[in-house]
TrEMBL record:
Protein name as annotated: Histidinol-phosphatase
Highest taxon above the source species: Bacteria
Alphabetical list of InterPro entries matching this protein: PHP_domain, Pol/histidinol_Pase-like
A GO term for molecular function: 5'-3' RNA exonuclease activity
Pfam families referenced in this protein's UniProt entry, alphabetically: PHP_C
Cited SUPFAM superfamilies: PHP domain-like (SSF89550)
Length: 250
């Protein structure tokens, strides 16, 4: 099973979730992967509405939604007090509950401490991933080693491979190795055009996050970085800019 473990369902945190737009994203995703983790930002506009819409428009198969033939595993990207970003992927019920528990931590001066988020994620048996560890705005490398070691994996990020260069793969791999953690690939896409720039390949099809987590922890997965990664990310960024400019005008 091919899966992208870091994706978004909206091109901006400030807009409503559109199922039409998400269908377009999944149609494009289906050309490259069998599954995605929908790790939308925890402080996006009306986070829980995403799952209300998905419940109305798609079928939940006790672990994932099916949209345009793509398995969509629920998730959330959380800003923590340490200024890092953490991906939490789990069941629909777990992600909805975690989002509600984050209600008192949504302001920039009061983000949840990483240790507390890890405790919550562990309680709900989620997959917990340190996102883009060397991104200048949201680094992870400065966090206390005891906390990093409690994560399940580290994100080799498609956008960062484009921004900082392909050598970022080795840098992140070395970082993960320091903590004996596996590396996974995530496109971090907000646009259809970026799908396929990176993805993970699991040895068999998974129907639950627990199964995915087991494969990753046992390091039975492989990840691929596409030869046209730069073109994909660049095209998506151009499209993103057009969307935002048009939205400002409207």
């Amino acid at each position: 099973m091919k899966i992208d473990l870091h994706t978004h369902g909206k091109w901006s945190k400030d807009i409503d979730f559109s199922y039409d737009y998400y269908e377009t994203m999944m149609r494009e995703a289906s050309k490259y992967v069998d599954a995605v983790a929908l790790t939308e930002h925890f402080n996006t506009k009306d986070f829980l509405n995403i799952y209300e819409v998905l419940d109305d428009m798609a079928v939940y198969h006790n672990g994932y939604y099916l949209v345009e033939g793509v398995k969509v595993f629920p998730g959330i990207e959380v800003d923590v007090a340490e200024q890092s970003h953490i991906l939490v992927i789990g069941s629909r019920e777990a992600i909805i509950t975690i989002s509600r528990q984050l209600d008192s931590y949504r302001s920039a001066n009061n983000f949840i401490p990483l240790e507390r988020l890890i405790e919550i994620s562990e309680y709900y048996q989620c997959l917990t991933i340190g996102a883009h560890p060397y991104r200048e705005e949201n680094p992870l490398a400065h966090v206390h080693p005891s906390l990093i070691a409690r994560l399940d994996a580290i994100d080799i990020n498609g956008r960062d491979l484009h921004k900082y260069g392909l050598s970022m793969e080795q840098k992140v791999q070395q970082f993960a190795d320091m903590y004996n953690l596996p590396s996974i690939a995530g496109s971090d896409t907000h646009q259809p055009l970026q799908f396929g720039c990176v993805y993970n390949e699991l040895p068999y099809s998974c129907d639950s996050v627990e199964q995915i987590k087991e494969v990753i922890i046992q390091r039975k997965h492989q990840f691929t970085i596409a030869n046209d990664l730069h073109a994909k990310v660049m095209s998506a960024e151009v499209e993103q800019k057009k969307y935002k400019e048009a939205w400002k005008v409207s």
